[in-house]
Amino acid sequence: MHGARTSGGSLGGLSELGLILLLFSLGLGFSARELRAVGVVPMIGNLVLMFLFGVVTWRLGVTFGLVHPITLALAFTLSSTAIGVALLQIFGLLDKRPGHAAIALLVAQDLVAIALLVITTEPAQGLTPLGVLIPLLKAALFVVVALVLGATVLHRIVVAFLRRAPADALIAFSTAVALVAAWIGHLAGLSFEFGAFVAGAVTSEAAGSRMVQSIVAPFRELFVMLFFVSIGMLVDVTSMLAHWPLVLAIGGVLALVRFAGWFGLSRLVGQPRGTALALGIALVPLGEFNVVLANDSYLAKRLDATELGTAIGATMLSIVVAAIATRIVAPRRRSMDAASSTPVTPFATEPAVLIVGYGRVGRTAAAVCRRAGIAFGVIELDVDLVHLAQREGADAQYGDGADPRVVERAIAASTKIVLTTIPDTAANLAMVKRLTHQTGVRIISRASRVRDIRTLRAAGASDAMVPEAEGAFGIAEALLSELGIERNRIDELVSAQRATIAR
Questions:
Q1: pLDDT digits (tens, 9 = 90+) for 81-91
Q2: Which residues contact 25 (CB under 8 A, 6 or more apart)?
Q3: What distance in Å separates the CA atoms of residue 200 and residue 204, rounded to the nearest whole number?
Q4: How are strands ordered across the β-sheet holding 353-356?
Q5: Model's pTM, two decimal places?
Q6: What is the pLDDT of residues 37-93, one digit of tens each?
Q7: What is the 3-state secondary structure (H, E, C) of 47-92?
């Protein structure tokens, strides 16, 4: 950071480098498609909560007699993207729809942070309407130029590197792009951080950038560690400890308010209690952009030393609180979700087919049933997939399809077939054994391995298959066909391979 660099020598430069690379990697996570997919209500809720957190911080600043409560409020409106992603992974939500939505909201906050960064770097005397408008217009022009260069020059360079360069060269290239963009942003009268984030976002939207992201992503934790360690070494601990009641009061109140806000928004959009708790905790921590905003405000004399120490102390406190809460809640999240759901009951639509699981396999089967005019119901443990099924016109209920008793309660008199798409042979085997004795429905079961097919059929399944294996056999058939092998010979070879694997 700028202030750290001038006061901390080479260590300050280290923190600046870590921050530039961190913000570039955060920019790589930008996706306009994910922002559009998150929905209007969560995005509006995101903005409302950011405003609420700012108001609460301002009120606390006024109560404790701080000199710049408005600037401090701007620095505390955001959540940490880097730490939030790490906590979502611990909760097992990173690859789920709630996790995707949370990341999209964090990215939207990062975009707001860029605007706040432009404002907070202006000295107080420059905060006239024109003084604010000119930096924002300058930032907008920078983004437009970056987008044009990204769609032309950068696009071609990225594609060329992906085709020819080794991974080490790609890392060096990404670092060079981040540093050059940060330098250009500084020359344009903006900030190093602004240039680095925009460069990452533009690279993210360039063709092939997902490979860049996958190569750079493992280094993000290093960037986070480098940034926070260097910042921690530059913090005036004595000053922070001297104002520890202020740090505890502001940090503690904000942690509670932020958790309540995110938990409430998650429940509002239909998340079960356990998932809502996880999302609330994951979005509590302050982090990289909060420290950047506080430090740059300090350099612009928009915060004093006490307020800067309070901001950094409250940031660290929020991270500690979230880490402790994660350790408590993470092992219990799934059981909380199950306990908060309403019991599965027979479907009112009297479906002929009951589909257990609405992943790719279940969704494909549902689409075929819908096209054929066959009534079906869905049981799914992921609440977001339940909502997706309902939006697509399916009669869907939230429930644990791996429990045979749950499925049994959902079977109606009209149900002829249960299709279980859960990728767990043991769970499907238990379901087959119970339902074949308790009901008269036929069961088509998903197997985890080809050798499990015989076991499931012996237990009473009408049919069983491994979707991945069926896809692989289809690819093998296409391969043999392209080589000019006759159809009869292809069938013979594929059947022989099936028999070999099934042994």
A1: 778 888 988 89
A2: 200, 216, 217, 219, 220, 223
A3: 6
A4: 395-398, 376-380, 353-356, 417-420, 442-446, 463-465
A5: 0.68
A6: 677 888 899 899 999 999 999 999 999 888 888 888 988 898 887 788 889 888 988
A7: HHHHHHHHHHHHHHHHHCCCCCHHHHHHHCCCCCHHHHHHHHHHCC
